[in-house]
Amino acid sequence: xxHSEITQAILKKQSFxxxxxxxxxEKIPPHLLAEEDPIFAFNKAIIDATxxxxxxxxxxxAFYESYGLKGWRSxxxxxxxxxxKHPEIFTIADAKRGDIGNTSSRYAKAFFEHMGFDSVTxxxxxxxxxxxxxxxxxxKHTILLALTSNGGAFDFQTKxxxxxxxxxxxxxxxxxxxxxxxxxxxVGATKDEYLVQVRALVPHAFLLVPGVGAQGGDxxxxxxxxxxxxVGLLVNSSRAIIYASQGHDFAQAAxxxxxxxxxxxxxxxxxxxxx
Length: 275
Fold this sequence. Notes:
Blueprint: H1 3-13, E1 17-20, H2 38-50, E2 56-58, H3 61-65, H4 68-85, E3 90-97, H5 101-114, E4 119-122, H6 128-135, E5 141-147, H7 153-156, E6 160-161, E7 164-165, H8 166-174, E8 183-187, H9 195-201, E9 207-209, H10 219-226, E10 233-237, H11 239-242, H12 250-271
Parallel strand pairs: 1-2, 1-10, 2-3, 3-4, 4-5, 5-8, 8-9, 9-10
Antiparallel strand pairs: 6-7
Helix pairs in contact: 2-4, 2-12, 5-6
């Protein structure tokens, strides 16, 4: 999927919502636990109820890996369902991988070739040879952690290195990698004051912005500081949508929560003339 295709989907749906499928069996509606595959049953219901409101879905792979082979199979069934029923929707494997070149190549093959994700999140700490194997895949995207939404981000990411913050150095360096046009960057919604700095460094790249909703990020501030001429944002919300209810109405409750965000996005896009 190209940047242009993502932008077209955003304008068509008047939404730049990404829904995080971070499934915890202790939080899903209890009646689903009787299903043969409770995780997939939950995901399918959420997707069926919200696909017209979202342009992307982002399963956090740790939530699936924690359930062993059954969890991994649930993830496979989820991406197969998305690719079969909604191929126009952008998919993100939130795996935060990154290792020496040969290992990164295997991670890339797993998510891009075997599972068919459009993108994967990558930790850049090991540098060029840990990132470029992901970038080698045509029509796939590598979403690099730049400035995350957690409190520990300040331990390293904002430290000054050669008169600039480390996250700025990471972004500048990454843009020198082969096929850097396939890069996107993670910038947490709780760090919206830094979005201006990030956008100045990568005026044309898409930014994946987690932290709106349960983590307290401000959608209007994110858009004010982070939008570019072609929108250039994928704003993720997970818990506030998928766990809006633990009852039999959970899918409709998720749809209602997603629609509230989509309506806010529609208003923002209308005000800036992106229709």
